[in-house]
Amino acid sequence: MITLAIDAMGGDHGLDVTVPASVAAVQAHRDIRLMLVGQETRIREKLDAVGAGDAGRISIQSASEIVAMDDPPALSIRRKKDSSMRVAINMVKEGIADACVSAGNTGALMATSKFVLGTIDGIDRPAICGILPRMSGSTYMLDLGANVAVSPEILFQFGIMGSQLIESHGGPGNPTVGLLNIGVEEFKGDETIKAAADLFKNSDLNYVGYVEADDIYMGNIDLIVCDGVLGNIALKASEGVAQFIMSVIRQEFTRSVFNKVAALASRSTLNAVKNRLDHRHYNGASLIGLNGVVVKSHGGTDSVGFRCAIEFASKAAGSGLVERIGRQISERMRSEAVSDRGSGARIPGLS
Fold first, then answer.
1. What's the CA gap between 67 and 49, in Å, rounded?
2. Which residues, at least 6 apart from 190, have a Cβ–Cβ distance to it below 8 Å?
3. What share of the chain is helix, strand, coil (3-state, %, to 5)?
4. Coil, strand, or helix at residue 265?
5. 54-to-30, 47, 101, 137 alpha-carbon distances in Å
6. Longest dimension (CA), the chain
7. Do residues 287 and 107 lie in contact, with contact meaning Cβ atoms separated by under 8 Å?
8. Which one, of 113, 144, 145, 148, lies nearest residue 10 by Cα?
9. I want to staple 228 with a disulfide (CB 3.0 to 4.6 A). Which of 42, 135, 143, 197 is the partner?
10. Band of pLDDT at residue 347, cut at 50, 70 and 90
C-alpha cells in the first residue's frame, strides 16, 4: 500500500479540486492510501459534500495554515511552519507518507522541499521534470521552471536524474537524451550549453546531441534537458497552443448548421483529438533530486488533472527513484575521483 500526503489546501482552487480528485483516485486504485493535509473542518465538510465522508483509505492530517500562491518562498519556510504544504512534506521526511502531492506555489514548494528533505548527495539543485505527449509515446523534459541560471554541470546532473526517472517508470533502458538548443548544429548555442554538451558526450548517457523545440512533440527523444526558463516557456506555450487549437475547432464547427451536422458526424474523432491534446492527462511533475518524492501539480488544474498528479506520484513513490539517482551520482563521483587522482588532480569535497 502506497501512502500519499496531499496538500489539500494548495492551488488556485484548493479543496474544490483536491478532495474530489482524491476520492476518485482511491476509488480507481486499491493500492493507495491518501492523507489529506489541511484545515480539518473544511476538509470534512467537502468530503461530506461530495458524498465521501466515510471514504475508505482517506484520512485527514490537520494543518492550520495555507501557503498562498503569491507568498514568497522564504515566508513559507520561516513563518508558515504549520501550513498544509509544510506538514505534507514533513510527513515524507518522517516516513509517514511515501510521497507528497501539491498544486501550491511552485517556488514555495521547491524551497520548502529542499529545506526539509535536502538533496541527494552530489546533486546541486533539484529540478522539475514532467511528461509531454509526442506523436508516438511521450517525452520527459526538465527543468520546467525551478532553475533560472544553471551551469554545464547542473544541466548534466539533470540528464542523469531524468534518465533514471524514465527507467524507474518502466521506460526504455538507457533512454536517449538531447539538449534543447536554437539549432542542432554543434556551433550553435551559448558557452554554457556547449560545455554541457561536452560533459554529455564524455559520459555513459545515451546522448544524441542538440534538439530543437519541435522535437518535443514531433521527435523521438526520450529526455530533453534545458534550463528552467526555456522549459517553462515551452510548457506554457504548449498548453496555450493546445487550448487554442481546441477553441478554433469548436468555433469552426459551430459556425453554421452544416458545420454542426459535420461535428456530430465527427464526434468520436473530435473526442479522440481532444483527449490527445488534453494537458490535464499529463499533469504532475517530479521535483527530482530531493531526498524524497514530491510531485507538483499545475496550480490551475481541475479535479481530473489533480487526480492524474496523484496517480503520477503513486507511480513515482514505488519506483525507488531516489536510490537509483543516488547510486548513479555516487558512481560518477567515484569515477571522477579515480580519474583525477591518476592525473594528480584533486577534486574538492572528495578525499
1. 24
2. none
3. 50, 15, 35
4. helix
5. 16, 8, 22, 39
6. 80
7. no
8. 113
9. 143
10. very low
Q: Give the whole-angstrom CA distance, residue 171 versus residue 180.
A: 21
What does residue 277 show for φ and ψ, rounded to 5 degrees? -95, -5
Nearest alpha-carbon partner for 128 in 280, 288, 283: 288
Q: Cell 486499491 maps to which residue?
A: 30
- Backbone phi and psi for residue 301, each to the nearest 5 degrees, phi listed first: -70, 165
Q: What percent of the chain has pLDDT over 70?
A: 94
Interior CA angle at 309 toward 167 and 228, to 5°? 70
> Residue 350 pLDDT > 80, yes or no?
no
| H helix or E strand, kind and range, residue 325 | helix 321-342
**Cβ atoms of 18 and 334 closer than 8 Å:** no
Tell which wins on pLDDT, 308 or 327.
308
Exposure string of 286-313, with b = 16+ CB inside 10 Å and e = fewer, is: bbbbbbbbbbbbbbebbbebbbbbbbbb
Q: Which residues pair with 287 in a beta bridge?
A: 128
CA–CA dist 117, 276 (Å, integer) = 35
pLDDT reading at 20 higher than 60: yes
Angle of helix 257-265 relative to helix 228-253, nearest 10 degrees? Answer: 110
Residue 86 has pLDDT above 50, yes or no: yes
In the predicted model, what is the mean pLDDT of the chain? 88
pLDDT digits (tens, 9 = 90+) for 93-118: 999 999 999 999 999 999 999 999 99
**Collapsing DSSP states into helix, strand and coil, what is residue 200?**
helix
Distance between CA atoms of residues 208 and 172, nearest Å: 15
Cα 330 to chain center, whole Å?
24
Are 129 and 138 in contact by the 8 Å Cβ rule? The answer is no
The single-letter DSSP state of residue 208 is: E
